[in-house]
Amino acid sequence: MTLKNGVLDPQGKAIGHSLNRLGFPEVGDVRQGKVIELEIAETDKAKAKARVEDMCKKLLANTVIENYSIEMI
Amino acid sequence: MKAAVLVFPGSNREGDVAQAIELVTGRKPQMVWHGDGDFEKTDLIVLPGGFSYGDYLRCGAMAAQSPVMAEVKKRAAQGVPVLAICNGFQIAAEAGLVPGVLMRNEKLKFVCGDVHLKVETSQSLFTNRYQAGQVIKVPVAHAEGNYFADADTLKRLEDRGQIAFRYCAPDGTVDGSGNPNGSIRNIAGVFNESKTVMGLMPHPENAVEPLFGGCDGKALFEGLVEALS
C-alpha cells in the first residue's frame, strides 16, 4: 500500500530529509507505504488474487488515499 | 433526547461525552459495546474519541468493520443522527458515513490544546445553536486529524454546505496559523449529504463547563437536544 500521487506523505518527507542529512543527497521524493503478508488457503492463483483484491477494497487499503498492488509468492 | 454512546476496545472519551450528554439532557446515555449487533433505538448515536483497536492498520479502520457499526450504518441510512468525534470521526470516515479521510498530522506530532473553529453553518441538527461565522474555542487531541478529500469531493462539500467547522485564528481568519494538523481547506468537521451525520476532530464534549476552560462546546449538545427531543 502506498499513498496516491498528490496525497501529502509527511512521513515520507521526513524520511527523505533525514536521508539527505545523513549524506544521501541523491534521495529525492520518498513515499512510505506498508506491506501486509497473508497466508491464503487457496491453491488457485486467480481466485486467491480476486479474494485479496476484495480484502484490499474492504479493509486493507483506504482507496481514498492509497493505492495497492498484490504479489503472489 | 435518548442517546447511545458506542464503546470500542481502546475508546477513552466515551465517559466525557456521556457526561456532556447527561449535563444537557439530565439522563445518562446508553453505553453500547462494539460487539453488540443490536441496541435500543435512540435519537442519537455517538462515536466517541480514543484509540479504537490501538489504531491498528489505519485509525478507525478496524472499528469501522465491527459488528455494531453494521447496525449504525443501517440506522444512519434511515436518518438516525450520528455524532462522530475525533477517533469517532476517523471511524465514520472509514465506514463511509462521511466523506474524506483523516491522515497523519502534517508535522507528524500529536497535537493537544485549544483551537478556534469557525462555524460554517447554523443549518444543521448539530450547529443550530451557533451563528454562521461564529468563532468558538474547543480542544483537540490527535495525531491523525489531517483531513483530506479529493478535488471533486471537496467541491461537492463546499457546494452543498457540508463543511461544518474550519480551523481559524482567534479573530476568525481561516489561514494556516489556526490550522493545527494540515487539514485541507482548514476543515475540522464535515456533514454527510443529508447533514444527519457530523464528524469532527475537536472535542466539544470537553468544553461544556467553565472549569474545563470554556463552554463553547455545550451549545452543540443543547442544539441536539432542542432538535431531537
Tell me what you see in this structure.
- The complex is a heterodimer of chains A (73) and B (229).
- Chain A is mainly α.
- Chain A has helices spanning 10-21, 45-60, and strands at residues 2-3, 66-67.
- Chain B has one domain (3-228): Rossmann fold (3-Layer(aba) Sandwich).
- The radius of gyration of chain B is 16 Å and the shape is globular.
- In chain B, helix 1 crosses helix 5.
- Chain B has a nine-stranded mixed beta sheet with strand order 2-1-3-4-11-10-9-6-7, sandwiched between helices. Chain B has a two-stranded antiparallel ribbon with strand order 5-8.
- The interface between A and B is medium-sized, with 11 and 18 residues.
Strand content of chain A: 5-15%
CATH class of chain A: Alpha Beta
Rg of chain B is 16 Å
Tell me which protein chains meet in the greatest interface and how many residues each side has.
A-B, 11 and 18 residues
- Strands of the widest sheet of chain B, in order across it, are 2-1-3-4-11-10-9-6-7
Note the run of SSEs of chain B as H and E. Answer: EHEEHEHEEEEHEEEH
Could you tell me how far the N terminus lies from the C terminus of chain A, measured between alpha carbons in angstroms? 17 Å
Task: Give the oligomeric state.
Answer: heterodimer
What is the name of the CATH architecture of chain B? 3-Layer(aba) Sandwich
Count of the domains of chain B: 1
Number of domains of chain A: 1
Largest sheet of chain B: 9 strands, mixed
Which second-level CATH architecture of chain A applies?
2-Layer Sandwich
Give a nutshell description of this structure.
With 73 residues, chain A is mainly alpha-helical. Helices cover 38% and strands 5% of the residues of chain A. Chain A has a single domain (2-67), classed as Mth169, Chain: A (2-Layer Sandwich).
